[in-house]
Amino acid sequence: MNYTRRREKLAERLEPYSLFLAYSGKAPYRIGDELYPFETNRDFYYLTGIKEPNLVYLLFKDADGYEEELFTERFDPVMAKWVGGKIQAKEASEISGIDGESILYLDQLEDEIGSYLNRYAAKNISLKPCLRKEEVSQEDDWLTKEVRRLQRHYPSLKVYNASGILTEMRLVKDAEEIKELKRGIHVTNEALKLMWSNLKPGMNESEAEAWFDFTLKKERMGHSFESIFGSGQNGTTLHYSENNCVMKDGTLLLTDLGASSNYYCADISRTVPVNGKFTKRQREIYETVLACNRHIIDYARNGMTLRDLHLESVKFYEKALPKIGLCKKGKTVHDYYFHSVGHMLGLETHDVAIPGYAIRNGNVFTVEPGLYIEEEGIGVRIEDNIVMKNGRAEVLSAEIMKDPDEIEAFFAKR
Ligand SMILES: [Mn+2]
Fold first, then answer.
1. 396 CA distance to ligand 1 centroid (A)?
2. Distance of CA 130 from the midpoint of ligand 1 (Å)
3. CA 234 to chain centre
4. How far apart, in Å, are the Cα atoms of 378 and each of 28, 65, 286, 288, 320?
5. How far is the CA of 257 from the centre of ligand 1 (A)?
6. Confidence of residue 279 (pLDDT cuts 50, 70, 90)
7. How far apart are the CA of 268 and the centre of ligand 1, in A?
8. Dist. CA 273–CA 239, nearest whole Å
9. What is the whole-number distance in angstroms between the Cα of residue 188 and the centre of ligand 1?
10. CA angle 395-401-406, nearest 5°?
11. Which of 15, 67, 207, 401 has its CA 20 to 30 A from that of 96?
12. How far is ligand 1, taken at its centre, from the CA of residue 364, in Å?
């Protein structure tokens, strides 16, 4: 990835005399002397490509250009023996493209910020921290605290959150980002096929999950989010992630899961019969959801919003559901379909988004209509990952089977 180009683009969008700050984050405390696994702040990662905790990226835009600096922890020989060394200037420079001379230590940061503020004091500098609202609500977030500290020391300093600029940039994916997404989707498919090959009635959902996880571990990929393995009735609970029930013969298994490649998240839902063969009723419902999935993919055009796509999926169901005996006795589509048709996808599963945003080339999102019929113990969701290309939806997850005949043939052949 060309991280330098991204930072240039960021600089182009900042007004002169802006001081931009991004922080890579820290793993939260878990228990004893343990931390939760570290997740790099995605805005920081997007700009630098570095996956390390406790780093600060600073960009100063002046009248005719910009300067940038990266602040790292000093080398600690004792820590290095216990948990390995922190990233060194040379490696950080190679990954990010930030000049090695501009890679400094965190204990120099305060002075550096002070020197920018003093040097350009006459210019009305504005501080542009890149902070998501979830971070602002975390009292111990470093960047939140730093912004407060600077406001105390420099009361006239104007502060504008720069996360909106990063949102706009991250919404449009380049070819390399699409490649990462496809890598995650491909591994997700391999993992699903291994799991399906071993699926049988009487097995616990947790065992099916273990078969899926095997491939991700082997390929050294993370999960985009906590996997959902819901069989029968469990498939009708939207965010069921207990994954600990025995899968009964004659039920469907709904899975919603994904592998992430360098944080780029696949997000795939598929629904298959536990014993490999749909009942007549299951197939009827499955085919309705599949028709909706295909209709929305076909319908999507540049300029539409995700809400437009969602409303179209509701309209589709309004026509289709009465034909399969649903929506009787005052029930409506919303009784069987209570989530929206999709969301943006990228460095986060529910990626950054802008309300009312008109989709355009390079946007990546999900199309995931479902139907959840509690009284019948049938839950179906079919979710694909889409990129807009030449104004139309291209299915990134086309390799993952969803045709019911193909699914039955796969199970019969095992
Ligand atoms: Mn999704």
1. 14
2. 25
3. 24
4. 38, 59, 9, 13, 17
5. 8
6. very high
7. 7
8. 20
9. 14
10. 140
11. 15
12. 12
**What pLDDT, in 10s, does the model give residues 295-328?**
999 999 999 999 999 999 999 999 999 999 999 9
- Fold agreement (3-170, 172-413): no
Strand segments (E) across 73-179: 103-105, 126-129, 158-159
Q: Which two tokens stand for residue 39?
A: 């997740």
CATH class assigned to 172-413: alpha beta
Q: What is the dihedral of CA 10, 61, 149, 118, to 10 degrees?
A: 180
User: By the 8 A CB rule, do 364 and 329 touch?
Assistant: no
Tokens of 19: 């001081």
Cα distances from 148 to residues 140, 159, 202, 249, in angstroms, run 12, 10, 57, 59
pLDDT for residue 77 is more than 90: no
* DSSP for residue 249: T
Q: How far is the CA of 264 from the centre of ligand 1 (A)?
A: 13
When the candidates are 3.30.565.10, 3.40.350.10, 1.10.150.120, 3.40.190.10, the CATH number that belongs to 3-170 is 3.40.350.10
* CA 342 to ligand 1 center in whole angstroms: 6
Name the residue ranges covered by the structural domains of the chain.
3-170, 172-413
Going from the Cα of 41 to the center of ligand 1, the distance in angstroms, rounded, reads: 21
DSSP state of 75: P
**How far out from the chain centre does Cα 289 lie?**
24
Cα(55) to centroid of ligand 1, in Å? Answer: 31
